[in-house]
Amino acid sequence: MKPYFFLLLLPLLAWACSSTDTTATANHTDTAMVSTGNYAAAAPLPALPACYLYVAAGDTLFLRLRSKGEDGEINGDIMDRAGVKENFSGSFFGQMEGDTLIANHSYMQKGKRKVRQVAFLRRGDGWIEGKGPAVERNGIRSFSDRGALTFDGNAFQKASCL
Question: What kind and span of H or E run contains 40?
Fold first, then answer.
């Protein structure tokens, strides 16, 4: 009788092992999955705070990701030491959309507060700054077509936070 009892439990055991736990995948908060451009990609965030540096021909840009809120909002700082009279240092608040951080960057220019939208594509241990057509609306310079963003500009490499 014992072998027959085991055979009766075998289908139940097989069914239990093949079922998936949907709550574990639905509650995974460190990865965003949204379409960016023509593809969808998962973008695990680094441990925060995290800092990145871009240096080239007299330009020095520093990107610091400070924290991630419960709603997924990421905030940080952009410090620009581009060798020009005015630098565009300020703070940003934004969201991950797939492997891309889209944020509003607030800074001072010629004594006035300015806001511009920025985009950074996560690649390996760094970020690449996005460029694209923008329009001014309600005092905020925003990308007019996110699908037209190109990421062939400033490549930020991992750096130590100061």
Answer: strand 39-44
